Every structure is written in structure tokens, then in C-alpha cells.
Amino acid sequence: MTGATAAALYERVRRVIPPVEWPTFVEDIEAILALKRERNAIILAHNYQTPEIFHCVADIVGDSLALARKAVTAEAQIIVLAGVYFMAETAKLLNPNKTVLIPDLGAGCSLADSITAQDVRLMRQRYPEIPVVTYVNTSAAVKAESDICCTSGNAKAVVESLGVPRVIMLPDEYLAKNVSAETNVGIIAWKGHCEVHERFTPADIRELRAAHPGVVVLAHPECPPDVVIEADFSGSTAAMSDYVEREKPPRVVLMTECSMSDNVAVAHPDVEFVRPCNLCPHMKSITLANIRSALEENRHEVRIDPRIAGPARRAVERMLSI
Fold first, then answer.
1. Which tens digit of pLDDT belongs to each residue from 15-51?
2. Count of domains forming the chain
3. pTM of the predicted model as reported, rounded to 2 decimal places
4. Annotated binding-site residue? 223
5. 135 assigned to a ligand binding site
6. Does a structural domain hold residue 314?
7. Same structural domain for residues 11 and 101?
């Protein structure tokens, strides 16, 4: 990487990465860019990744739905998923003949951990003939027990696409309740929660409004319903980013994982971002160093039992067809 290239990359992120920190990233960024060329690899990065990953080495960025869609058309032979493990599994489901790497096997998810395939089977026994809509924030084994998947960006459309009076929606209780408030379809929910979003409260929003008059509050639908009601807008990370692009609020707060604000702020220098910082420890386990190691050593390849992969892929592909 030339000095000019490094300078151009830093220009992207200078508002969110202090100059004193930038030199600590340059060597790994240079190595990762070279390794991608050498190995015919691309990096998919979720919106919650830190700016030096999101803006400096990633090829495809977005929310879970965007990454799922774009993984299908990925032309590289190696996919590195800068995100959490269920996202890497989804990329593998949609790219069975490609190598998918996850830089840290410990990059999990409280929602994925909240439910098992056996739990889904028991729910089906309790509520026979009711279709199961499963959030993508789940393991491939859970997806395999489902009729269709959804993301926070398309959950309402998926639920309504089934044309039935009731569905089972797993595992995020708050997402299910927030979708239920927007549709006439009855929703049977599970008790899973996101460890980041469940911490936000209506009192947090009122305090932010008092401290920052005129602030526009955007809440992720994994937040509790009373937080969503208190907010000015609720939507997926992609929807929140689109809102800022479209409305250009002078001052905004994103009630979600705090790297999201940094990544959106890069493109909006005229918007003031108030940051109530709730970190996702799993997302933050992905670093430039372990992305580099994944590419150098083919570290942590994702493999899925074919007996699980087939039905799980069908549930994801059914979602993508909507």
C-alpha cells in the first residue's frame, strides 16, 4: 500500500479515528489488501464493525439482509465474514462451494444462543400447523427447523407473505412484539433478547432529549417496544442509515451498537451523532489482526452438516425470494 493509498483511506475515517491511532492499523490494512488480491478473497462486514474494518478493508458492507443478498453474488473463492458466527454460517449456506472464514470462533450472539433446534421442534408440537419464522440471528440448525427466515429489515413483509392468521416468530421477543404492532397477523414469540438492545430504556431517550434538544432518536426493532414507541423512527441498521441519508437530521442518536454511529457518521459530516455507547462484545472480537490471520492461515473455516445445510438454505432462500 502506497503512502497515497494510506492517506486516502485515512481521509475516509479521520472524523472517527484519531490520528494517533491510525499508524497502529496501517500494517494490518496493507497486509489484508494484499492477501485479498493474492487469494481471490473478499471481506463482508456488518454495520457494527469498527471503522478501520468497515471503511478500510471491507468489500461488501451492510446489515444482515444486505450481506445475505450480496453473498449470493460474491465472485471471490474465499469469503471472510467480519461479523458474528451465524452470519458466517448464512454466507456458507448461500455459497456452499466457497471457503467461508470467521476470524474469531468466539464471535457469537445472545439471540442465537437463546434457542436450539430442539426448542423449535417443541414449539411445533405445541402449535401444530403454525408456520415458523426464524430471525437470521440463529444457528443453521435452528434455521433448518424453520419454514422461512427473516431479518429486522424484512420481518413484517415475511410474516405477511405467508398469508396465515398466526405465525411463530423466533427467537427475539422484542422484534416479534414490534412487528406484531404493525400487522394484523398474530405472533407467538420466544423469550430471546439481544444483549445490546435490551439495555436501552425509555428513560435513556428522555435523558438524551433533555441533554440534546432537538435530537432525532432512531431505534433498532430489537429494542424493547416501549423504547420503539418513545423513538422518532424504528428500523434495521440499513433503514437507520437510509433515514440519516434521506432526512439529514442536524442531530441524531442511533439506539443500537455504537460502531454503527461511527460508520454512518463518516458519510455525514454535517450531522451531529450523539452516541449512547452499548458495545457488542462479539462484534468487537473481530479485529484487523484476526482478519489478517484468517487470510494468512485459512483460519476458522465454516462447515455445516449437509443434513442441516439443505433445509436451512431453503429457509434463507425463501426469505430472499420475497
1. 999 999 999 999 999 999 999 999 999 999 999 999 9
2. 3
3. 0.94
4. no
5. yes
6. no
7. yes
| 150 annotated binding-site participant | no
Q: Is residue 32, in this structure, part of any structural domain at all?
A: yes
SS (H, E, C) the chain: CCHHHHHHHHHHHCCCCCCCCCHHHHHHHHHHHHHHHHHCEEEEEECCCCHHHHCCCCCEEECHHHHHHHHHCCCCCEEEEECCHHHHHHHHHHCCCCEEECCCCCCCCHHHHCCCHHHHHHHHHHCCCCCEEEECCCCHHHHHCCCEEECCCCHHHHHHHCCCCEEEEECEHHHHHHHHCCCCCEEEECCECCCCHHHCCHHHHHHHHHHCCCCEEEECCCCCHHHHHHCCEECCHHHHHHHHHHHCCCEEEEECECHHHHHHHCCCCCCEEECCCECCCCHHHCCHHHHHHHHHHCCCECCCCHHHHHHHHHHHHHHHCC
Confidence bin at 65 (pLDDT 50/70/90)? confident
Query: CB of 45 within 8 A of CB of 79?
Result: no
300 assigned ligand-binding residue: no
For residue 73, give the CATH number of its domain: 3.40.50.10800
The predicted-structure confidence for 122-159, as pLDDT tens digits, reads as follows 999 999 999 999 999 999 999 999 999 999 999 999 99
How far, in Å, CA of 32 to CA of 56, rounded?
10
Residues 182 and 115 occupy one common structural domain: yes
Residue 220 in marked binding region: yes
277 is in an annotated binding site: no
137 is known to lie in a ligand binding site: yes
Same domain, 87 and 120: no
194 is in an annotated binding site: yes
- 143 and 188 assigned to the same domain: yes
Residue 114 labelled as part of a binding site: no
Q: Which amino acid is at 281?
A: P
